[in-house]
Amino acid sequence: MADKKRIAFINQRYGEEVLGGSETYTRETAEALAKRDDFEVEVLTSKALDFKTWANHYDKDVETINGVTVRRYKTDKNRNRVVQRSLQILMNVFSITSPGLEEKRLKARGPYTPDLVEYIKEHKDEYDAFIFVTYMYYPTYFGAREVYDKAFFVPTAHNEEPIYMGIYKELFNNVKGIIYLTEEEKKFVNMQFKNSAVPSIVNGMGIRIPTTDDTPLETLKNDEKFPDKYIIFCGRIEENKGCKMLTDHVIRYNKDNEERIGLVLTGKSSMTIPEDENIKYLGFVSDEDKFKAMKGSFAICVPSAYESFSITLLEGMGCGKPALVNAKSEVLKGHIERSGAGETFETYEEFEKGVRKLLNEDINRELGSRAKQYVEDNYSPEHAAEAFAGFIKENIKEK
What we know:
Blueprint: E1 5-10, H1 21-34, E2 39-46, E3 62-65, E4 68-73, H2 81-92, H3 99-109, H4 114-123, E5 129-133, H5 138-144, E6 151-154, H6 168-174, E7 177-180, H7 183-193, E8 200-202, H8 218-221, E9 230-234, H9 243-256, E10 262-266, E11 279-283, H10 287-296, E12 299-302, H11 311-318, E13 323-326, H12 330-339, E14 342-345, H13 348-359, H14 361-378, H15 381-395
Parallel strand pairs: 1-2, 1-5, 2-4, 5-6, 6-7, 7-8, 9-10, 9-12, 10-11, 12-13, 13-14
Antiparallel strand pairs: 3-4
């Protein structure tokens, strides 16, 4: 095709085994566009797998994954949390800040991949567009500065401490176009950076629900002590994702109520999970087992106060399950308000009330139907890919 556009996605990590919201978004979107005949798609990323250290993991410099050319660059040094935290204290406790200190903090956060940035600088004329996914890391900030006239941005932004660093104002105002995942994200970014003049669209990721049978997972079915009715959380199991609060709430709920509920956790854990017969930690599971576990639950729960989209929430809703989410997250609350398919909570008492409501089979069935319809109507993979492709092509600078 004569007008085929060569584009590169930039993300801090990439691979089918990589867990993370922006990483999953990047992979799903890159693969969807690679199937089209109007794009040649590449990914520029680090050789890291573990975001806590950014230690080099992958050996190959270039490989092809599901039709996408992936170029990997070494991290020159591991993540430096001492420098990162020290600079955060200087900025927020002592109000000492400058662009230089903020950039130093960003380099400490990593992944520090100067060769990736140099590749962008040297080869920018060979690409029609560079698409930087998530605002927080070194490759986006330093890479986008080299190619503002070809840079598109999927910021995955929300109200959290790092986004208030002054250096981000230039980034959010100088890119060629921005793809927001939700209306709440766009509203927050426009208020923070006064960048409403930058061309943008709101276009969430396409959610594809695979066909699986409805038989329970063997690991759950064969555990006679585990409750028949359970809520599920899928993703990185961390305290700052609200997971400790969630386990505490479930334990307290089962002490306060005659009918017990279970909690299923899937994903990589970086916190101590309580030893409790009502809490089942499955670790990393296949997509097939994840969706079977979702379909066996009575609700999908996302307890995080900070979310920019939440793929797993929409996957659970797409399985026909109502949602139970943290009301402090404007994005999560927005999904519930638009869909009418769940409950929000901030306190334990609100959590308990929401659980009791969702245990009602008639209510659960009705809200589950709304949840599934919401995902089908708003997050079709085909529609998301078409809107994304159209926005990029419309705003690409003609050579």
